[in-house]
Amino acid sequence: MAKSGSPPDELVFLPLGGSGEIGMNFNAYGFGPPDDRQWIVVDCGVLFGREGNAPGVDILMPDIRYLAEQQGNVLGIVATHAHEDHIGAIAHLWPSLRCPVYATPFTARLITGKLEEAGLTGKLTVKQIPVGGSLTLGPFQMDFISITHSILEPNLLAITTPLGVVAHTGDWKIDPNPMLGEATDTAALQKLGDAGVLALVCDSTNALVPGSSGSEATVRESLTALIGTLKGRVAVTGFASNVARLDTIARAAKAHGRRIALVGRSMQKMVSAARETGYLKDFPTILDETELADMPPDRVLYICTGSQGEPRAALARIANDSHPNVHLAEGDTVIFSSRVIPGNELGIFEMQNQLAARGIGLLTAEDHFVHVSGHPCRDELAQMYRWIRPRLSVPVHGEIRHQMAHARLARELQVPQAIVPANGQMFRLAPGKPQLIDEVPAGRIHLDGKVLVAEGEGLAKDRRAMAFAGLIVVSLVMDAKGRVAAPPQVLAEGMPEPVQGAILRAVENVIEANRRADPDDLSETIRRAVRRAAQDAWGKKPLTRILVTEL
Amino acid sequence: MAKSGSPPDELVFLPLGGSGEIGMNFNAYGFGPPDDRQWIVVDCGVLFGREGNAPGVDILMPDIRYLAEQQGNVLGIVATHAHEDHIGAIAHLWPSLRCPVYATPFTARLITGKLEEAGLTGKLTVKQIPVGGSLTLGPFQMDFISITHSILEPNLLAITTPLGVVAHTGDWKIDPNPMLGEATDTAALQKLGDAGVLALVCDSTNALVPGSSGSEATVRESLTALIGTLKGRVAVTGFASNVARLDTIARAAKAHGRRIALVGRSMQKMVSAARETGYLKDFPTILDETELADMPPDRVLYICTGSQGEPRAALARIANDSHPNVHLAEGDTVIFSSRVIPGNELGIFEMQNQLAARGIGLLTAEDHFVHVSGHPCRDELAQMYRWIRPRLSVPVHGEIRHQMAHARLARELQVPQAIVPANGQMFRLAPGKPQLIDEVPAGRIHLDGKVLVAEGEGLAKDRRAMAFAGLIVVSLVMDAKGRVAAPPQVLAEGMPEPVQGAILRAVENVIEANRRADPDDLSETIRRAVRRAAQDAWGKKPLTRILVTEL
Questions:
Q1: Does the structure show a pLDDT above 60 at A2?
Q2: CATH number among 3.60.15.10, 1.10.150.20, 3.10.20.30, 3.30.565.10, domain A10-211+373-457
Q3: N or C: which end of chain B has fewer CB within 10 A?
Q4: What residues of chain B lie within 8 A of the CB of A356, using their CB?
Q5: Is the backbone peptide bond immediately before A15 cis, with ω within 30 degrees of 0?
Q6: pTM summary value
């Protein structure tokens, strides 16, 4: 491809998200000479905010300024599957890339819904790739190989370039009986490996977990039997995107003479998307919440959002009995057909305690077999490496501890090389031995309210500081001769009363001793005095701001 | 005991902490007529604060104003064992009770250390009860029955009154081989049951967990074998108060030719307390951190604080390589001989990621048998009920879901009655059938910095609001004629720049339209305008304060 005398073509891998975190997946592949690479983006997802690290921030997404500056060279965004941590940032970041978006039908349907909500309809149409189909963008020829995961239509992308083939797994597990959608196309994976693969870029979520993740089919058996043992109303909560699980729950309800309702917007959205793309053809009839309210409790099953304790989701409102249409009572049961996502423990437990206090039974994955993970455990990873036999292992989609464990496992499995990339590190995969060749700007963008803010601007950090120790504001009025013209106003927000008193006295003492002063000097003196007073009275040093009005 | 004509004596139980939470244990037993009860307090502990629910609050403790008002009738505080959630509030709450404190030697030693730190030395001496000893306080005759837990000298209190016997378990498990300290005094428990027990007031922590918690002896075998397989430096972190575990780790080190150092103040404090009270007589020699630094890595083992990711503890500093004397490197290993306390997940994982990123191996209870719980699982609870055979089960020491599961289990075990108390609910245990007879003021006190603040005052809640949406302050100067005398100062703390701009413009627009106004009216107009502006630009409504200076 390279002209004689010009630098040779390279194939590079550049993660801008998803390394070092489970979420916010954003992986770029570049091809061409260093000064004129063409790019494809695989997945473009969000990470959910946590009160502990980014209070008031609902979602985080990758800082992609490096690619935005090369907008004309970005050939497309390809989504492996429809989970939020793989597609949730498209509507937010597309305006700085303005490239086509490609996905299989179910995924495309959900992305389209997000674009509609973001007011991007008409600016961009998501291009559908058939299940098992292919796509060529410039030097990148991609085959969508069906795998299994906890959602419909997960794909491994086999990315063929003039310099070799990369297998990019997306999220996956090996489910011998996924109940809905395609099975793992093991023949295609085997064939891919036979032809020779440069690198396997692969999910690390469960790299610390021995064994296998288990099958939806066994959950179906277990949940069906369990629901058969229950009296009273049953509510089952889980991840709305796991359509096979919703199907399981609905069929289990039907098997035991219970009618179903979907409670929560994302449940309804997922079932609609699945039906519109040809799935769930014989799903049991869905009734309205209000229709179930008057039926005998033993005939009722609600499928609810809110397994993670989200305060505005259906189950949280059912738990504190503020839901308009769904009311549970003593003797009813809630099944959590889900896992606890780390960071959500306290919110989930609080909700479970509200239910338990009202005599509602709780069945969870802690005590019953009602959930399986969608990510590959160590035996499954080993099987994938046996199929693909890459020359290089690139663990992504994990915290560092997961990526490091994945890399160690790959080395044990005789993969010649394994690299753990950080977001922003650019690796040349070919020609030659894979190596780090550049570090480009990377980081996180916060969706703070409805404004995008770079994490480095520290707003969330400032607000954490206020959460810890409040804020002192002193308002000072000075005349043109540098005299204090009125008693200062003092605000000590978020502080105990005795501390507020100590701060007020400190301000008064400074003013007493400085009736006339340079405004800047006086501000600084007050600032120091109030921080010292707070430290003495409270043991904390709050953020302190002095507002000076000069008449 | 009652005089003729006066109301009869009653035995009552009143939890003021520890029901609905794992921590903050505070249980009172009262005896006498309703208007003149004598009280004993069993345990007086803290709950640790979480950034998510009480930012900037290190510890929480019970609101005991009800007993403080009857100070002269509180005969004593009796500690069952030395965990923080059972003794950590004594130094803070003793000043409002001013009664004697009783504990077995190891527990007494640790309480004394806390009183010294709080400057209470001389005001109060902790009275020692020998292991297996007894104590009589007014109508309460207490026998300290040795049980097993994850600390030295845990006790079940058999509380005998003229109206019957209550068995109060404290925290416990059934460890057939606790490695250090007394075994469970099963003969005493059996005998207690034979004599007839009114009520069993019992630990609910693991009431949702089937089976048994396991023995320290098996952890000793497993940890010793595991450490034998490791090359390089080894650091083991765990709960400092689990002295048997420290002994296990030290012996395992010695067995494999490793010398030990204790890293972190609470490790040193616990080992000293154990030695001073007669334990750990043949503990391996403890070297200083600095002495280990120069030894070959394979000869070194550090026993560290910080298993919960506490930012100032030893392991957090080792993880980010800021510890003055302990430096780990690639090929070294950290063993977490501990569990993850809910709410600490993200902090622990962050620390583990820092270690993993530096090539340091991690071994945890997730992947190796390196920890057992100190609380009774369901089989152990069943055994305790077989020994004690109470007429009433009172599950405490748990969240509501644990207490409810415990109560259900007790009913399955044929206990005639089970009640799940809430903090502040007073139950009459005798005479007659146990029943709720009163609800007294109860709640939580925050140690906010170094100031005690009632949870209801909402400081932590105000600070959470600031963490979510920041704080707007507008400083306004008005002259005596109600005219705005200078341009207003606007502070929009914790907000993105475009939102700050929108707020500033909103203030200017209001002033523009109101050059002369009543200060209160103008303040309210500004307050509404800036909140509306923030909502429009940002999607959030920050706390807003208007400071008016009238010249």
A1: no
A2: 3.60.15.10
A3: N
A4: 400-401, 404-405
A5: no
A6: 0.94
